[in-house]
Design brief:
heterotrimer; A alpha/beta; B alpha/beta; C mainly alpha; A: alpha/beta; 2 domains; 4-stranded antiparallel beta sheet; B: 8-stranded mixed beta sheet
Amino acid sequence: MTQQKPLLSVNHLKTYFQSDDGLVKAVDGINFDVYQGETVCIVGESGCGKSVTAMSIMGLLPDSSTIQGSINLDGEELTKLSKGNMRRIRGNKLSMIFQEPMTSLNPVMTIGEQITEVLLEHQVISKKQAIKKSLELIKLVGIGRGEQIIKSYPHQLSGGMLQRVMIAIALACDPKMLIADEPTTALDVTIQAQVLNLLQDLKEETNMSMLLITHDLGVVAEVADRVVVMYAGKVVEQGTVEEIFTDPKHPYTRGLLQAKPVLGSRKKRLYTIPGQVPKLVDLKPSCYFADRCEHCMEICTQQTPELKCNDNSEHKVACWLYEKEVVHQ
Amino acid sequence: MTQEAIIQVNQLEKKYKAKEKMFRKNTEYIKAVDNVSFHIEQGETFGLVGESGSGKSTIGKSILRLQSISNGEIIYNGKNVFQLDKKEMRHLRTKMQFVFQDPFSSLNPRLRIGDALAEPLLDHGLATKKNVKEKVMETMEVCGLPTYHINKFPHEFSGGQRQRIGIARAMIMDPEFIVADEPVSALDVSIQAQIINLFQELQEERNLSYLFISHDLSVVEHLCSRIGVLYLGTMMELASRDQLYENPLHPYTKALLSAVPIPDPTKRRERILLKGDLPNPASPPSGCKFHTRCPFAMDICRRVTPEFKEREPGHFVACHLVDKDETNT
Amino acid sequence: MSYSNNEVIQTDHITKTVQRSSLWKEVMKRFFKRKMAIAGLIILLLVFLFSFIGPFFSPYMTAGTNPQEIHQAPSLSHWLGTDHLGRDVLTRLMLAGRISLTVGIGAMLLAVTIGGILGILAGYYGGLIDQIVMRIADILMTLPGLPLLFIMAAIMSEWQVPAEQRLYIVMIMLSLVNWPSLARLIRSQVLSLREREFMVATEVLGLRDKRKVLNHLLPNVVPLLIVTATLSVGGAILSESVLSFFGLGVVPPTASWGNMINTANTLIDFTNRPWLWIPPGVAIFVTVIAVNLLGDGLRDSIDPNMKGR
């Protein structure tokens, strides 16, 4: 990456929730940047904080949460914006697609109404122009028969179509940044391939940036430029997609890559990461992966490792294995 | 058939009534499963793959007689399952078991897991009140559940552990045959590997036969010895694992395989992208059901349903294209 | 309570070494975090004490009518004054509380028993049983409740049912009017439970019907049953008061909060002797609100889906 200014810059973001069991540190001090025109994937298992990160950026957190740190989008500090100003940005400069297209669309409004609604809200255009733009958008996301589609209701379309409609709505105001939270998880494999292709093409056409949140390493390898690996609310590794897949450093990243059965590579048994993700309540300073890690050392259970680079590249890892002075001990 | 078949499915057909329209005499039917035949050998894992609406779960449930069928027969060890009386069926339940996709909704939230596991043993008289606890703890250990969890409720477990409970419940009566309906698709990658390994270990220990239903082709490749590919309720291709993954004959199988994202950024491949969406199952396309999306569709495909024929030993496929190639050479 | 059936297995055969969590303990924990619900519970307890223990401390317990002391305003000897027959209003308020609470709870128990059993049967077995039960329920529900009660009460007066027995007949009447909606609710809960995968799992395991219903269905219905039962007590108390106010429910000399208000049925009584109608009115109001607060609190703390989902 060139040393330009990042489009989205997340710094020391902490998102905490108050629950019955105590304070849940869903996102606990994470940093990452997204530059113009690139795709960054946040990958991790359920409960690692990847969706909370997305919601924090979108400003869609429930009231029971507290947020610290900074989220800077194109020079604007999102955490300090009023609700009204945030709404102006959302759906305009910054938009999002969700996992379940079925439930994210209003069942009693036609597709056309739902697309034009966004346009009329954020742009100064007439209703006629909005409808014209909607038709263009529907064409853009690869659906034929636009006139027919804008008159139909969500239940008349299939899941893959609806996800395309969601993408059309998200792209309505030419966003600079698109956040996609598991956009293909609910879809069938062949439809997933179509949607991923579409997202890739759109990104190249419009030069927008994309933050893709997923648990599927296959999807990551297909679309990402850079990858952020999260575990228990922290970033454990960050690098370009080649770095992460060909030279994974953190034992968790390595474990994830080995645990997934891959087409064509037959093994007798799958590698497993023992145990499960810790509860995010009352965690003591330590590496949160320590109890599942096969390389666990004494220091891992006592101090939290920091995310840093250990060579000249941008490949960062939060693991004591790579801290030189520790290894010497 | 070298080995003895434990399950034989013959010309299975399942029709659902579609919306009954007023003032119209003939009701429309949706064929969820359309003339499907296959067998499962003793001790093997047979995989059923397909996208949503392919009828794979319906077949799994029909084999256990959890729903009615419209036509055809299911033979378990020489007995026609749908001709058994209530008492014989109850006995058969101890031999054939089911593992559900969602381990949360398939466990009674108000039953401690010790009781949930003890219940079938007591109900079928397979254990006395004295030795039931011993048997329960033994099965828990085999399934990787620490026995001190015996008095806990399902909501106190993580997703992976709940699936272990689901498996333990299926195993407790020491069955011969298990239908596993997408048992790992709700789980995280690292947990998925644990459960897949557990399935393999149990099979080796107990000489179990599995029907493994999944949409994930990489998992199926890892686990199954023979695989059937379903599309809109019809079997498109049936072959051994090596035949299917190394030499897929049906264009649908090829497309499915190429749509699976591979976690290796150096291998970004050209995909066979399928056009459009799954057709409405209430009015399936004429001829070959796949012709609307097939990149190689010919005139004959629209008119004539291709025959399901054996092309090489154990490799069946229903496709005109393959027929044509064969006549040409 | 809900899993007393399985308790048999547990206590006898499965380790007690491990600390056992209890679903009801969790419910209690959640319940005691809700201030309004606790307020409801405390008020209700006070009303009970007031009605059932209170009269023993009253010097007018045995005193009947007293022509010398009619229509007295509240004073030190009669805290809430006396009525047109010279009876102590406070004592009568306590005694009326007994009646109103008994009718409320009795009617609820009856309605819940009828509605619960019929709802479970209709939901679980479906088919003809479902048809019969639900059609009867439908018919009862198309008849407006209050007029129906009036008609039944009028018939009762016509047959000259003795005053002491009217209490029980009012209970039966109220439960007859209330069970259809309860049965409907329970039936729909059973129907949705039946589709849940754990019920399919009982089928896979080949369990007997009795076990399916008692171990799997019932424990999952009980929470809903408790909540609706609690909330329906409030409704029953109100209905009884309305009936008694119109002289069709519990009739004097037996006191109930409803017929106590009725004693202030002239404008003179209403404007000049507020001690006749304000105390029973407040009693009804406070009790019904307390019951509803308690029911809402229970509903929030017994969430059958529980957390982690």
